[in-house]
Write a structure and sequence with these properties.
Structural class: mainly alpha
Shape: globular
Number of strands: 0
Distance between the termini: 30 Å
Radius of gyration: 23 Å
Helix content: over 70%
Length: 494
């Protein structure tokens, strides 16, 4: 447990530093030195690679986490589990590559009307996709071997620092925008090399192609297949809107939209940490049929994630005026204000429903995850196709909010019916009221002339009011304990 906690704390520190760097990149540097069209092109290429990478992964990452805990003889079978996972990824990646090349014409038609520049980077998207597949596989190896810190360090801190370096080189006219995009291939080569050294060489992870018992092999492939379909649905949930905004509204609108989306992505950060830490715990609990501990973990995760995400959401929404004043060319990007509000609310609702994806993926009902998530991914596409042409960026954000709400409700109902798991309590209701109350208070706080001073003072006041409220109502034992420990260290009576 000590290793998990230590790794979690280190990962959190690295990720939050990465968030700061990413915020500076997305909200300050890129709007200052790049046009909305260039930002839209860059984000579209990256999101396309992320979306396509799920075809190559084929659900193997979650399969490794689940089946590692089910091995009867880990000393002998773990190497074979790694081996068959590598083979699955190789075959699925090869199939994906051939299919994508065959249907290159359809790819070109998708972007030809509003975003033709995307088609110039078809080969780059393929290369980035393959790099992401390899990186994510190595990342999973690191996580299941309790090396969460290094995996997140590279993804959150190193990559964003390299990206900042690329932006500054572009700003100094030392490289072209085209070269800036090409540089990202090198970024991932570097990170893959470092992660390979850390996961394979340093920890002496060995891979064997000696087959596992036939029954386990069949179960693993079937499990990965179902998770591939659910992963595809999840990728559509998170990335389809970005691609469809580019298709229907063009790269300039895409740049504005994706900048707004990036501003609220930080809200999801706590969920990712909890999910990474919870996955092996939940898998082990299901292995020992300890359903009570899973339900308790589910409830604690829900209220803690909601409160943490709620605070982040409040800090963003209450400071939107300041952010757009500070942001270079803020008057252009302020057209995405409502996107920030709606998309942020979607992310917050996703936190409210806690770690339902992780629980279902590790349960015997994991195949339901496939059906639900794929349906919702298709619902996202359908909603975007209907709403984006009619309502523009607001339509995309509304579709995001709608589908994420339905997504959470579906999986909430599934866990309630199958295991009688339920994450909400009276504390949830009080948490909602607290967030609404703080928003109301903020409405009556006048803006100061200086946006920097206003941002600092307003943020500080929001944090104090929010934390005092949830502390006095005892909405989270864990948060209260952290506050008490901090107060004791500072010798403050509360």
């Amino acid at each position: 447990m000590g290793i998990v906690i230590r790794q979690s704390l280190l990962s959190s520190a690295a990720s939050y530093i990465g968030v700061i760097i990413g915020f500076v990149n997305a909200v300050i540097l890129m709007p200052k030195f790049m046009t909305p069209d260039q930002i839209g092109l860059f984000r579209t290429l990256l999101s396309a690679a992320l979306l396509l990478s799920c075809f190559g992964r084929f659900g193997v990452n979650s399969g490794l986490v689940r089946y590692k805990s089910l091995l009867k003889n880990p000393q002998k079978e773990l190497k074979s589990l790694y081996g068959i996972s590598v083979l699955i990824v190789l075959f699925s990646s090869l199939f994906f590559l051939i299919t994508l090349i065959i249907f290159r014409g359809s790819w070109a038609d998708f972007y030809s009307e509003k975003a033709p520049d995307v088609n110039k980077y078809f080969v780059l998207v393929i290369v980035l996709t393959l790099e992401l597949i390899i990186f994510q596989f190595l990342q999973t190896l690191a996580i299941i071997n309790k090396n969460i810190f290094v995996a997140n360090l590279l993804k959150d801190l190193v990559y964003k620092s390299l990206n900042m370096g690329g932006i500054l080189l572009f700003a100094a006219s030392l490289i072209s925008f085209h070269t800036f995009i090409i540089f990202h291939i090198g970024f991932y080569i570097l990170m893959i090399g470092l992660l390979f050294f850390e996961s394979i060489y340093k920890y002496k992870i060995k891979i064997s192609f000696k087959p596992l018992p036939p029954k386990m092999t069949r179960e693993l492939i079937y499990y990965c297949g179902t998770l591939f379909i659910s992963g595809l649905g999840l990728s559509l949930l998170n990335l389809a809107d970005q691609q469809l905004v580019s298709r229907y509204l063009g790269l300039e609108a895409s740049g504005i939209y994706m900048t707004a989306i990036f501003m609220v992505m930080v809200i999801e950060l706590p969920r990712r940490f909890v999910g990474e830490i919870s996955a092996p715990i939940i898998a082990q609990a299901f292995g020992s049929n300890d359903l009570k501990s899973i339900n308790e973990h589910y409830k604690k995760a829900s209220i803690n994630l909601f409160l943490l995400g709620g605070l982040i959401y409040l800090l963003i929404i209450t400071n939107l005026d300041n952010i757009y004043i500070i942001m270079p060319k803020g008057q252009i990007y302020e057209t995405g204000r409502n996107v920030v509000i709606l998309a942020g609310l979607a992310k917050l609702i996703n936190l409210l429903f806690s770690i339902n994806d992780g629980i279902i993926s590790m349960s015997k009902y994991y195949h339901f995850n496939m059906v639900i998530t794929l349906f919702l991914g298709l619902l996202m596409i359908g909603s975007d196709i209907i709403l984006i042409p009619r309502y523009g960026l607001i339509g995309a954000a509304t579709a995001l909010l709608l589908v994420f709400t339905v997504h959470g409700l579906f999986k909430l109902i599934l866990l309630k019916i199958t295991y009688n798991f339920f994450p909400f309590s009276s504390k949830t209701f009080l948490g909602v009221l607290t967030i609404l109350g703080v928003l109301l208070i903020n409405y009556f706080i006048p803006l100061l002339i200086n946006p920097f001073i206003d941002l600092i003072l307003r943020s500080g006041l929001i944090i104090v009011i929010f934390l005092i409220s949830i502390y006095k109502m005892k909405l989270s034992l864990e948060i209260n304990q952290i506050i008490n420990d901090l107060a004791n260290k500072l010798k403050i009576n509360i």
